[in-house]
């Protein structure tokens, strides 16, 4: 019962992150399941089965708040489902000894990406208005779906930054569209895993616990996406993913590092993680102060009937 409650809390926290950043539900949840010794294919299957419910609720909440571009959902979601099914089939065919460290490597890479992306750049901005084309979204969905299944997460970390970097879709609609299209990916991956490992390989009580936690958090996350500082949250989550999967790798048969080496790695990660969080908080405050300054100057200029000198800097 205690483990189920913990999983429900993990599902809640992971969905708050995912609904706010457009990524990291699967990466966060799978990382925890691997850490407690779950078979890699079963861990990914558990998370994707739970995501069927969480993504459905999350998508509905984002749609209600006007955060979804349905053309983008269709163009990226269908190829994503194909890639997810292929990835699930591939992971199911691997032995546990091979799959566990392989999944940790993928998760570690995604954690590094999330940490670096949000610590150094935050959410990228660009010129809005131009449509996202199918020739860009279809290959992106295919790759993101495959990575998502084999890594137990990755749909958001691959898809969200790519669309944000294009500058053609505002951040809230990018996050909402990625979260909504993930429903198709979760369904396809779940089918692939059930075919590959059978329903006996999945603990449905764990699925239900993750699902309940995620469903509770989904509407809150859809609202928070307009208010939470993504830069700080991304740094927090990225560091956690890096630390947990580094621990798994150093303890695996691939490396089997001695205690002194492991503790040295942990100390270095903690130091970098703390510095990243501090930098993100500092940059968030600086950006907020700059925005407030520009707005104040614009309002003062408008009151005087003048053209604001800071126009266009936001």
From TrEMBL:
Pfam families, sorted: TauE
Highest taxon above the source species: Bacteria
Primary residence: membrane
One Gene Ontology CC term in the entry: plasma membrane
Subcellular location: Cell membrane; Membrane
Keyword annotations from UniProtKB, A to Z: Cell membrane, Membrane, Transmembrane, Transmembrane helix
InterPro entries assigned: TM_pro_TauE-like, TSUP/Inactive_protease-like
Keyword Lipid metabolism annotated: no
Keyword Membrane: yes
Topology in the lipid bilayer: Multi-pass membrane protein
Residues spanning the membrane: 99-120, 181-198, 204-225, 232-250, 262-281
Family of the protein in this entry: Belongs to the 4-toluene sulfonate uptake permease (TSUP) (TC 2.A.102) family.
PANTHER family in the cross-refs: MEMBRANE TRANSPORTER PROTEIN MJ0441-RELATED (PTHR43701), MEMBRANE TRANSPORTER PROTEIN YTNM-RELATED (PTHR43701:SF12)
Stated name of the protein: Probable membrane transporter protein
Organism expressing this protein natively: Vallicoccus soli
């Amino acid at each position: 019962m205690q483990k189920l409650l913990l999983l429900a809390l993990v599902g809640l926290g992971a969905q708050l992150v995912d609904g706010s950043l457009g990524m990291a539900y699967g990466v966060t949840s799978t990382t925890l399941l691997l850490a407690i010794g779950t078979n890699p294919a079963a861990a990914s299957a558990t998370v994707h089965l739970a995501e069927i419910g969480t993504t459905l609720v999350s998508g509905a909440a984002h749609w209600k708040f006007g955060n979804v571009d349905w053309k983008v959902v269709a163009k990226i979601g269908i190829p994503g489902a194909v890639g997810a099914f292929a990835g699930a089939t591939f992971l199911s065919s691997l032995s546990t000894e091979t799959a566990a460290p392989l999944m940790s490597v993928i998760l570690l890479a995604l954690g590094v990406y999330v940490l670096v992306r949000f610590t150094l750049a935050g959410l990228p901005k660009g010129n809005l208005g131009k449509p996202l084309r199918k020739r860009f979204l279809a290959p992106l969905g295919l790759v993101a779906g495959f990575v998502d299944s084999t890594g137990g997460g990755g749909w958001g970390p691959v898809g969200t930054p790519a669309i944000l970097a294009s500058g053609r879709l505002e951040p809230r609609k990018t996050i909402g569209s990625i979260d909504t299209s993930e429903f198709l990916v979760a369904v396809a991956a779940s089918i692939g895993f059930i075919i590959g490992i059978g329903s006996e390989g999945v603990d449905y009580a764990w699925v239900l616990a993750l699902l309940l936690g995620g469903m509770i958090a989904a509407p809150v996350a859809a609202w928070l996406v307009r208010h939470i500082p993504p830069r700080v949250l991304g740094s927090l989550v990225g560091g956690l993913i890096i630390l947990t999967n580094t621990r798994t790798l150093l303890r695996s048969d691939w490396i089997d590092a001695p205690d002194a080496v492991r503790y040295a790695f942990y100390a270095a990660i903690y130091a970098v993680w703390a510095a990243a969080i501090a930098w993100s908080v500092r940059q968030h405050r600086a950006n907020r102060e700059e925005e407030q300054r520009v707005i104040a100057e614009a309002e003062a200029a408008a009151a005087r009937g003048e053209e604001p000198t800071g126009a266009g800097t936001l």
